[in-house]
Amino acid sequence: MSDTPYYEHHVFICMNRREDGRPCCAARGAQAAQQHAKQRIKQLNLNGPGKVRINQSGCLDRCDEGPVMVVYPQGTWYTYVDNEDIDEIIDSHLIGGNVVERLKI
């Protein structure tokens, strides 16, 4: 068994939808953000084993701070507003190795 992670970065984007009126990531653009991130990673040829995986997730239990995503193996939590924030996380964290402090939660 290898100690090397299957993906260098595994990103989970919360897609939770609450029907009771409480804040949820789905109501804050999570689907579009996940699709944008996945497409951008593919365009940069960063997808696949040993590289980056962008996944949808169920509730990550931080919807009040959302929308949210978490980057593993570091366990870095982010919020975001738009595609520019997603691109900054990709460029700075996933490519450059630098946490985007202004978006970290």
What would your notes on this structure say?
This protein is 26% helix and 20% strand. The chain is α+β, with helices and mostly antiparallel strands. The protein has a single domain, classed as Glutaredoxin (3-Layer(aba) Sandwich), CATH 3.40.30. Strands 2-1-3-4 form a 4-stranded mixed sheet, with helices on one face. A hairpin with a 3-residue loop joins β3 (68-72) and β4 (76-79). α1 packs across α2. The N and C termini lie far apart (33 Å). The model has no long low-confidence stretch (mean pLDDT 94).
Summary tags:
single chain; 105 residues; alpha+beta; Glutaredoxin; four-stranded mixed beta sheet; 4 strands; 26% helix
Average pLDDT reading = 94
Q: Say what the CATH topology is.
A: Glutaredoxin
- Computed over alpha carbons, the radius of gyration is 13 Å
Order of helices and strands: EHEEEH
Determine the structural class based on helices, strands and strand pairing.
Answer: alpha+beta
Q: Helicity range of the residues?
A: 25-40%
Which CATH first-tier class would you pick? Alpha Beta
Query: Any idea what the CATH architecture is?
Result: 3-Layer(aba) Sandwich
- Count of DSSP helices? 2
Rounded to the nearest angstrom, the distance between the terminal CA atoms is: 33 Å
Summarize it:
With 105 residues, the chain is an alpha+beta fold. It is 26% helix and 20% strand.
Secondary-structure topology with pairs:
Layout: E1 9-14, H1 30-43, E2 52-57, E3 68-72, E4 76-79, H2 83-95
Parallel strand pairs: 1-2
Antiparallel strand pairs: 1-3, 3-4
Helix pairs in contact: 1-2
